[in-house]
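Hypothesis: this fold can be encoded by more than one sequence.
Test: take the structure tokens below, design a sequence, compare later.
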């Protein structure tokens, strides 16, 4: 313990928690008193008393005590951890950091190495999901916590894997998700939509007719229970392809009023084009045969007319196209 004095001070007495200790060196305005380990806490009561040569008390003062940790400080900044790839949590630190602890889903682990501002803590396979809650804490030499930060976890394989979406056919976005995913957001051409149902590792999100073209931009975002973004992926859009089928029109006589023929596949309707003008989609398509009413010399009036007939599937896509042969 050290102190300064003025006047006729010749000796000092130090009292620690009611126990007096004599000794010390008093010289040239300075006092030095070896205490060793007698003061163990900043909550101890310590006084120093000054006496003159005649053993008369000149003054008594309370000694202010501070813990060594009162003046320590430091920070820790963890790096991204890739679940499924990394086995060590790494971080950088500053200040008086002397030890670290890692907490994984409320389980505390002690260890790690610190060197030149870099920390490393081997964790093995204890972190398995981006939904795990992981914190790293920094302590000084006396165990005072200086800082604590959450560790950002990413799944190396991703947390959401959207299925392909077929435009004009599908109305529901689907995806595989990890158990860390609790909610999603779908962004279509810059517009956000929230909702969907997650069950058994599968996402189902009704989208209706909001996706209109395979050139639309669609991205799906996955969030954990705390609303933290885990992953985001673009949805692959593909155009609808026609059902497979063929069309075999019969020869059309101007003495009849319906175009007839045979078809294969899942045809649902017909469309005729006469001399470049498309007629209304319709006709009767059933059991491998078809007919389309054109009237008697109404829509088709001459054997020189150019008539095309198209077989359409349930989505209105053209399965096959044939030219119609016309006779008197």
């Amino acid at each position: 313990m050290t102190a300064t004095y003025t006047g006729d001070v010749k000796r000092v007495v130090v009292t620690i928690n009611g126990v007096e200790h004599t000794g010390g060196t008093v010289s040239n305005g300075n006092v030095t008193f070896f205490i060793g380990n007698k003061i163990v806490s900043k909550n101890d009561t310590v006084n120093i008393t000054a006496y003159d040569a005649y053993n008369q008390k000149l003054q008594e003062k309370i000694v202010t005590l501070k813990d060594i940790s009162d003046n320590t400080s430091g920070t820790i900044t963890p790096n991204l951890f890739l679940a499924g790839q990394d086995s060590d949590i790494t971080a950088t630190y500053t200040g008086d950091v002397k030890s670290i602890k890692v907490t994984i889903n409320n389980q505390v682990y002690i260890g790690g190495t610190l060197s030149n501002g870099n920390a490393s803590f081997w964790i093995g396979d204890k972190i398995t999901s981006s939904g795990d809650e992981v914190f790293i804490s920094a302590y000084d030499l006396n165990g005072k916590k200086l800082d604590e930060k959450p560790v950002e976890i990413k799944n190396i394989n991703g947390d959401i894997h959207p299925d392909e979406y077929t435009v004009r056919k599908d109305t529901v976005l689907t995806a595989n998700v990890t158990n860390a995913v609790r909610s999603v957001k779908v962004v279509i051409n810059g517009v956000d939509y929230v909702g969907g149902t997650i069950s058994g590792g599968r996402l189902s999100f009704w989208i209706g007719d909001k996706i209109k073209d395979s050139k639309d931009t669609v991205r799906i975002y996955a969030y954990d229970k705390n609303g933290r973004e885990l992953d985001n992926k673009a949805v692959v859009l593909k155009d609808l392809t026609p059902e497979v089928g063929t069309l075999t029109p019969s020869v059309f006589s101007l003495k009849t009023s319906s175009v007839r023929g045979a078809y294969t596949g899942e045809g649902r309707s017909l469309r005729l084009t006469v001399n470049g003008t498309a007629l209304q989609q319709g006709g009767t398509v059933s059991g491998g045969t078809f007919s389309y009413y054109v009237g008697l010399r109404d829509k088709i009036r001459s054997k020189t007319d150019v008539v095309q007939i198209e077989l359409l599937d349930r989505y209105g896509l053209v399965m096959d196209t044939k030219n119609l042969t016309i006779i008197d």
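The mean pLDDT is 94. Residues 209 and 258 are 36 Å apart (CA to CA).
Hypothesis status: open.
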